[in-house]
Every structure is written in structure tokens, then in C-alpha cells.
Write a structure and sequence with these properties.
The protein is mainly alpha-helical and 95 residues long. It has a single domain (14-89), classed as Nitrile hydratase, beta subunit (Cyclin A, domain 1). The chain has helices spanning 14-27, 36-44, 48-53, 56-70, 76-89. The radius of gyration is 15 Å and the shape is globular.
């Protein structure tokens, strides 16, 4: 049986707002990079563990990255490099 549904409202974190905006921009009429059905399918294809372990917007972000990689918009190397740049900027790179 599924767990309880969280019904309380909370303010979105800045990164969550960015994911929402990114999804809207990628799906707007001018760009048409993805559809709501593609996003839903990509989220479902993340698997049960990802669904349980990640937040709503973490699932969106993972699904968006997978769609963009599948469509050749970005590569895994580009994503990895950007994540490294962010870790360095935030002082989280311990290599």
C-alpha cells in the first residue's frame, strides 16, 4: 500500500522553480522539444526506486535530462561537465 500523501503547501526552492520554468519552456509552442506525455513517460521509466527516493522536482529534472539526451539536445558529457562546474563553484568538489 502506498504511503500517505503530503497535503501541506510549502514554498518552492529556487531550483524547483527553475525546473518548472525549464519544463514549460521546453514544451511551449515555440520550442516544442517535449510534450507532457513524454515527460510523464520518462518519469515512469525512471523506475520505482527513483520514484520513491526522489522528490517531485528531482524526478522531473531526471526525466527532462533523459529526454534531452535521447533527443540529442545534450550529451551526458555536457551534463557531467556542468555538474562539475557547479560543484567547484559551490566548493563541493573534493577531488
Amino acid at each position: 500500500m502506498a504511503g500517505a500523501i503530503e497535503k501541506s503547501e510549502r514554498a518552492l526552492e529556487p531550483w524547483e522553480k527553475r525546473v518548472d520554468v525549464l519544463r514549460n519552456l521546453l514544451g511551449d509552442k515555440a520550442r516544442q522539444v517535449l510534450t507532457t506525455d513524454e515527460l510523464r513517460n520518462a518519469i515512469e521509466n525512471l523506475g520505482e526506486d527513483a520514484y520513491k527516493d526522489n522528490s517531485y522536482y528531482e524526478r522531473w529534472m531526471a526525466a527532462l535530462m533523459n529526454i534531452l539526451k535521447d533527443k540529442g539536445v545534450v550529451t551526458q558529457d555536457e551534463i557531467d561537465q556542468r555538474m562539475t562546474d557547479i560543484r567547484i563553484r559551490l566548493g563541493l568538489d573534493h577531488s
